[in-house]
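Structure (tokenized):
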């Protein structure tokens, strides 16, 4: 298998089984989002619909918690993009406040719904938050160890996701 075919396989796997967004996958593999989209479309044209495979995977074995987890992940990515827009965009103070209020309201509703539908997801959120805070702490206080911690945290994060979503 060529390196390009191996990369396509990994990209498909992340999209279907890990339910990662195209933009996240693109960033993870240092490729453009358009490339991910082209590969996804070419696969669909060849009879491999990544979206149907993704849905089937969720329905087949992961149930409601996986769906809630996916929705929460997508929401948090969009929330971060909104916060970046508030911080970096050209908006009046009033517009920024309105955007923050709207985002806070949406976050409260999404969190409450997720907690009711999949209680383990909120535990996963706390665990992931602690890991992110640990990484930030190491970067600030022990920068020489940041790469090693990152190397450990990434696979451990996957393990936590398995623990809290199965």
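Design, position by position:
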């Amino acid at each position: 298998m060529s390196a390009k075919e191996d990369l396509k396989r990994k990209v498909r796997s992340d999209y279907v089984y890990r339910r990662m967004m195209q933009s996240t996958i693109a960033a993870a593999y240092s490729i453009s989002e358009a490339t991910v989209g082209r590969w996804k479309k070419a696969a669909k044209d060849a009879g491999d619909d990544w979206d149907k495979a993704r849905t089937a995977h969720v329905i087949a074995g992961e149930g409601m918690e996986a769906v809630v987890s996916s929705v929460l992940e997508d929401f948090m990515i969009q929330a971060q993009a909104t916060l970046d827009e508030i911080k970096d965009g050209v908006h009046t103070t009033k517009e920024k406040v309105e955007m923050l209020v709207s985002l806070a309201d949406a976050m409260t509703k999404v969190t409450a719904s997720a907690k009711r539908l999949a209680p383990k997801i909120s535990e996963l959120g706390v665990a992931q938050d602690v890991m992110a805070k640990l990484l930030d702490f190491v970067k600030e206080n022990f920068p020489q160890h940041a790469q090693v911690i990152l190397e450990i945290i990434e696979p451990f994060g996957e393990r936590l996701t398995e623990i809290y979503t199965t």
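Reviewer-requested clarification: The CA atoms of residues 68 and 114 lie 6 Å apart. The mean pLDDT is 82.
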